[in-house]
Amino acid sequence: MPIDQELLAILVCPETRQPIAEASADLLARVNAAVAEGTLKNRGGAQVGDCVEEGLVREDGRVLYVVRDGIPIMLVDEAIDLADS
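^ thats the sequence. predicted structure below, dont judge the formating
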């Protein structure tokens, strides 16, 4: 389920207040490869066990927020540091 574009226009990173955008298919493939290897953890330290079908990436490209069932999970501890994936 794609994220609502009006919602996307007003969302920002809760940590830095930078704008966010939908993650590309290439980025999601890279993240999901790390999920499959069992090496990906979120910022809270929990292992990411489910494939990421949708995500929002921070403007600087360093953080990914997962979207589940069309709902962005905008919690800092649930975010994925992309330098680690």
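Strands lie at 20-22, 54-58, 63-68, 71-72, 80-81.
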